[in-house]
Amino acid sequence: MILIREVVQQALCTGYLTVDAEEQLRKMLRGKYDSEDLRAFMILQKAAMSGQVKQESRVLLEEKMLEQAEVVEQLLREVLVTT
Hints:
The protein is mainly α. About 80% of the residues lie in helices and about 5% in strands. It has 4 helices and 2 strands. It has a two-stranded parallel ribbon with strand order 1-2. Helix 1 packs parallel to helix 3.
């Protein structure tokens, strides 16, 4: 069975936490884990907050928000042209 610290190590090495790895961590954190795994998870949290590790889920959310903003901008242009 894979350990939390192994998922964390992968994310720290690549600088990227995939959606799958995030979900895997959530599942593992619902079960039993040792103090070393907890420590590794806290290190990952700090790395994500400082920007050392990017979260795929946040990247995807940002992309979706940008797409929506572009759609709104286009709609506003169309409204302004027709008025």
